[in-house]
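Notes to self after the call with IL:
- keep both proteins in one doc
- input above output, always
- annotate only the second one for now

Protein 1:
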Amino acid sequence: MNRKTLPFTSRLTKGQAIAALVYLPVHMVLLPVIVTIMMLRGLLDETQANLLCYVLGVAYMLIFLWKFFRRDFDALCDRPWACIREVLVCYGLMLCCNFVVNSIMLLLGMGDNPNSEAVFDMAGMTFGPIAAMAVFMAPIVEESLFRAGLFGLIRRRNRTLAYVVSMAMFSLYHVWSYALMDLKNLLYLLQYIPVSYLLCRCYERTNSIWGSIFLHMLVNGVSMWLLYAMM
C-alpha cells in the first residue's frame, strides 16, 4: 500500500471530471442559498433543507459517476485488508490530531463548532434521517467532489497542490456560511484540516475513492453513535 510502489490510477474520465466540477459550486453555494430562501419562506425546515441538498447530490453522483464508482470498487476488492488497515490507521491518526487541534481551539477561546452543533441539533429532533444523511449521503457526495474531483484532477499535475486545494475547499465548505455571520468562525477551518488531509491520504493510498468514502462514513458514524448514546 506504499504510495511509492502502488501507482495511483484512480481517476475520473474527462466527462466525469467536468460533471463533478460543475456540481461543486452548486453543492457548496447555490443549493444552500436556494434552500435557505425556501426555509425563510416556510417551505422547508432545516432538516428537510439539508436532506434535499444531499439527496440531490447522491442522485447526481450516481447518475454521472456510476462507472467510476464501479471501477474503483474493483480496486478496493483487489486489496480489501490493506484498505481496511489504511482506513483504521487514518481514523486513529485523526483522533490524535483532533486532540491537538481542539486543545488549540480551547486556548483560542473558541466554543463548539457551529456546523457540528447544527447537525447535532437536527439529529436531536429527527435522528434517523440526519444519521442517514451524515453517515451515508454526505460521504458519497463530498468524497466525489473534494477527493475524486478536486484532488484526483489536480494530482495528475501537482500532488502537493492537490492536497492543499482539496483540504482548503473541504474545510471552507463546512464553515463559510458561518463565517459570513462572524469572521471569527473561519478559525474553525483548523478543525477540518486533519480529517481533510487524512481523507486525501486514504484515497491516495487505497487507490480507490471507496477508501476515503468508508473513512468518512466511519468518522461520521462514530460521531452519530456517540450522539445517540447521549440522547
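Protein 2 (the one to annotate):
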Amino acid sequence: MLKKILMLLPVLLLAGCTTGQFTRLTPNQQPRNANNLYPVETSFDSQQQSLRWDSIKAYVVVNGQPYALRQVPVVKNRWEGLVPVPAGVKSVSYRFKFDYLYNVFGGPPKPNSEASKTFILKVAD
C-alpha cells in the first residue's frame, strides 16, 4: 500500500503546480498620442482550483515599475491598464504580473504570483 502511495506522490505534487495562461489582447503597435499613455489588455486563465480569484491584484510592469490593471467589468478574466511611453521613445517592453492567494489544506491562504512573457509595444509617429 505504501509503495502505491509513493508512486502517486509525484503526480499529486505536480497536479497542484499549474501555471496561469496569459493572452495579450493588445496590438503590437499603436499610434502616438498626446498623453503618452497606451492601453494594454490581457486575459488570464488558470486550471489551479485552489486559486482565489477574488484576491487577484493585477499589474503591467514596464522598466521594473508596476502599474495597476483594473478588471474589465462584465467580461470574465480580463484586465486593462495604461502603459506610459515617453515622447521620442519608439517602443517599450512590458509584462503582466498577477499576485493572488490560493487555498491550502489545514491552513490560511498562501500568496503566489504569475508573470507573463515579455511583450513589446511599438509606438508609431
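Annotation: Residues 55 and 80 are 17 Å apart (CA to CA). The chain has a mean pLDDT of 89.
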